[in-house]
Specification:
The structure holds two protein chains of two kinds.
Chain A lengths: L38 H29 L1 E4 L2 E4 L3 H7 L2 H33 L6 H13 L2 H11 L6 H8 L11 H29 L3 H9 L4 H29 L3 H6 L11 H11 L3 H26 L4
Antiparallel strand pairs in A: 1-2
Helix pairs in contact in A: 1-12, 2-12, 3-7, 3-9, 4-7, 7-9, 9-12, 11-12
Chain B lengths: L6 H21 L14 E7 L1 H17 L3 E7 L4 H11 L8 E5 L3 H7 L24 H4 L9 E13 H6 L10 H15 L4 E3 L9 H8 L17 H15 L3 E3 L5 H7 L5 E5 L2 H8 L7 E4 L13 E9 L6 H13 L1 H11 L26 H10 L11 H18 L3 H16 L6
Parallel strand pairs in B: 1-2, 1-3, 5-6
Antiparallel strand pairs in B: 3-9, 4-7, 4-8, 4-9
Helix pairs in contact in B: 2-13, 8-9, 15-16
The chains are: A mainly alpha, B alpha/beta.
């Protein structure tokens, strides 16, 4: 919006009390400087904002538009909610969602429980060579996702896999880890737990180290046992970290792709097909970009709803 | 640099940038709209994979000698990575694509259908004159909606049944007596008990989506997932017959599970598989990977899927195309034409990469009628040439092949892992394919 000439107040006739301080530096009179104490923070965050706009916001908006269209390449036609309606009637979408939910319900609590136990152990002063144990626990999360998938495809091989060989030493029959629908799910849970437990354990460990020791000392004086101290002090103190790990793990599991992609390809009979893998198949194998975008938005909606629910349920009550 | 950039100027610049960005977004309307050029000189890049890339490199010195001004850079992109790279390139209007693209028949119709302007019109550059030079049945795959050719056939894979002659001899099974799969299923238990080997292997869980055997059994009946008009035939009698044969083989305990990395190679190496339905590329594969089994293998025409039925099938084929976005389309076309229509060059590539040529003129080379020592002196390549010539027609892969393949894989897994009825599983798969693609079902 531009100011009309009559609205301008000449500097010379402005009331003395409201006159601005004279310009400094090389800025010409009448022009305001960009580099001020107030503008510098905005300039500093501008690269991130521009990066977000270019590489995040634009694809997000473009993807939404594509989800409302059908057709090939340049010849896209607006189709309204047709892709979303199609999604509701697609049994493979529901299978993928069911698989993802199953992994979420089974694997996330298992992994976080295990991580908490490990963190409690690593936090104990009675553990010898603690840094070494901490490193060992964290190491799997440094492994590349695809590398982990390939490694486990060798370990879990039915005929020549290391795990079946170990089981055979105890007289246990070979398990078809990747070839049976139910065992393939177990295999995915196993790989995910191996990969991410250490990461969560380190987060809990950081949280544990932030709990004031006075609380434990006071509780001891009051006669509280270890379980009571854990329930009444440790868990409430860890609440923010617990919330963080639950939300991050939920989002990560809902976006699960690499491990099942490398290990099972979503099989057998779609037992390990996840929503993101189905999304990828539709986009890059079936070239159905409109439908793939609709899947992406459906997933984003599910992630958002679950995230909000978790924050409401576990988050700090004010 | 002056620091006197005013806030208004800053806003103006930001607005201009945003407007430009918005225009770019509007202008980038998706696939195949890249403006290429018809340059006839310069360096052209070629995307291929593994041995095929190596074979193509062998053509480059001759080509560059005969075409001064053009340099060729063949890149081994890897497979399956090449499909993602090409798909992304086509979806972004041809940006970042190589000039020449090596594409399989499982992807080519999809690219032509979904990105109609993504691959260059080779008819306009003179491709049609080569139409009859290739194996019958391949040309329809290169034709786009505009009725123009968009690729030239390079490789064709006629089906053969590789078998362990020593196991057949041990079981007293005469290969000549195997005319159809009923005969082989009947002989299977004898071969299994005499040699301890499975009759053949399949990836039962379908992790690799390798449905070649199922497709072979349909192709032997002149059928596929789609008919010539693109209607769905995944639940057709031919498909049910194919999956029923696989179920019978499995129920009889004759199928080894090939799931997992390198399982097939390991079982073949251990001599645990008696027959191997595979296309022509396997001739050199078996000979080079398992030299210790020299003299033990032979090849026969694949048994018919139904008694009295056909005994030839084209498993798949690959092609070279030129990207529309290429700035040197004429130079790229000249390389494609040079590599794929000269028998001497084609055979040079066959010798180095095992890519069985689609160019029928290449079969006059003596190597196609020579005895092969690995196969006990059998003229194996000659039998594949016969198979190619006996092939009756095209397989319509369509742009929805990948989706059909996925659903067929699921149906086969349900039959092999859960004992599902083939007809029921295929009927459900066909219905789902129709729901997802909007295609009609035949019958």
């Amino acid at each position: 919006m531009s100011l009309a000439p009559t609205e301008r107040v000449p500097a010379a006739t402005a009331p003395a009390g409201r006159r601005k301080p004279p310009p400094t530096g090389r800025a010409r009179p009448g022009r305001r400087r960009v580099l001020t104490r107030r503008s510098v923070p905005y300039l500093l965050i501008m690269p991130a904002v521009l990066g977000f706009a270019l590489f995040k916001a634009y694809p997000i908006v473009a993807s939404f538009w594509i989800s409302l269209t059908t057709g090939n390449g340049a010849g896209r036609q607006f189709a309204g909610l047709a892709n979303y309606r199609r999604l509701l009637e697609d049994p493979l979408f529901w299978t993928a969602l069911e698989n993802t939910a199953l992994i979420l319900v089974v694997q996330v609590p298992l992994m976080l429980g295990l991580a908490l136990l490990i963190a409690l152990g690593l936090d104990s002063s009675k553990v010898w060579l603690r840094p070494l144990w901490r490193l060992g626990v964290f190491m799997p999360s440094l492994t590349g996702l695809v590398a982990a998938g390939v490694m486990f495809s060798v370990i879990l091989n039915h005929d020549a896999g290391l795990l079946n060989w170990l089981l055979s030493l105890f007289g246990v029959d070979r398990v078809d880890w990747l070839g049976s629908p139910s065992w393939a799910r177990v295999a995915i849970v196993l790989v995910l737990t191996w990969h991410y437990t250490g990461y969560n354990a380190v987060m809990y460990l950081a949280g544990l180290q932030g709990v004031p020791t006075e609380l434990y000392e006071a509780a001891k004086v009051d006669g509280a046992g270890p379980i009571r101290r854990f329930v009444s002090i440790t868990l409430p103190q860890l609440r923010p970290i617990l919330l963080l790990t639950v939300v991050l793990s939920t989002i990560g599991t809902l976006q699960l792709f690499d491990e099942p992609y490398v290990l099972t390809g979503g099989g057998p009979d779609n037992a390990t097909l996840t929503v993101t893998m189905y999304l990828y198949n539709n986009g890059f194998k079936f070239f159905d970009f409109g439908y793939a975008s609709a899947l992406a938005y459906a997933l984003a909606l599910i992630v958002s709803v679950l995230g909000i629910l978790q924050v409401r349920l576990i988050g700090e009550r004010r | 640099m002056s620091h006197s950039l005013s806030r208004r100027r800053l806003l103006q610049l930001a607005t201009a940038s945003a407007a430009g960005f918005g225009l770019t977004a509007c202008g980038d309307n998706g696939a195949g709209s890249a403006a290429g050029g018809d340059g006839d000189t310069g360096t052209i890049t070629v995307w291929s994979w593994t041995t095929a890339a190596e074979a193509l490199r062998g053509v480059v010195p001759d080509f560059e000698r005969d075409n001064p001004g053009i340099k060729v850079d063949v890149q081994d992109v890897g497979e399956p990575a090449i499909w993602d790279k090409i798909t992304v390139g086509l979806a972004s209007g041809g940006k970042g694509l190589a000039d020449v693209l090596h594409i399989g028949v499982d992807y080519l119709p999809g690219y032509l259908e979904k990105f109609p302007e993504g691959l260059a019109d080779l008819s306009a550059l003179g491709a049609d004159k080569h139409k009859d030079a290739f194996v019958k049945g391949l040309w329809p795959s290169v034709i786009g909606k505009d009725k123009a050719a968009h690729a030239l056939p390079w490789e064709v894979n006629p089906l053969g049944l590789f078998y362990r002659k020593d196991y057949f001899d041990k079981a007293r099974v005469d290969p000549e007596s195997i005319q159809n799969w009923d005969d082989l299923i009947a002989a299977g238990p004898k071969i299994r008990s005499a040699s301890g080997a499975y009759l053949l292997g399949i990836d039962k869980p379908g992790a690799t989506q390798d449905m070649d055997f199922f497709q072979n059994l349909m192709q032997l009946q002149g059928a596929f997932y789609f008919d010539g008009d693109g209607r769905i035939t995944l639940a057709s009698p031919a498909a049910v017959q194919a999956l029923t044969l696989i179920k019978r083989l499995n129920d009889a305990g004759l199928i080894a599970d090939l799931a997992g990395e390198g399982t097939e190679k390991r079982l073949l190496g251990q001599g645990k598989i008696a027959t191997n339905p595979n296309p022509a590329w396997a001739v050199e594969y078996l000979a080079t990977k398992f030299p210790a089994q020299k003299g033990k293998w032979r090849v026969m025409q694949p048994p018919a899927a139904v008694p009295g039925g056909g005994r030839s099938a084209l498993v798949n084929s690959t092609y070279l195309a030129v990207a529309s976005s290429s700035q040197r389309r004429k130079a790229a076309w000249r390389f494609v034409e040079y590599a794929l229509t000269k028998p001497a060059e084609i055979n040079k590539m066959f010798a180095s990469g095992g890519v069985f040529p689609a160019l029928t003129g290449a079969y006059a080379d003596p190597k196609f009628s020579a005895p092969h020592p690995f196969y006990g002196g059998q003229k194996v390549l000659g039998s594949f040439v016969e198979s190619v010539r006996g092939n009756s027609g095209a397989t319509n892969f369509t742009g929805d092949y990948s989706r059909a393949l996925k659903l067929a894989t699921d149906a086969q897994s349900q039959v092999l892992l859960k004992g599902a009825d083939p007809a029921t599983a295929l009927k459900a798969a066909a219905a789902q394919l129709a729901q997802q693609t909007g295609r009609q079902q035949a019958v």
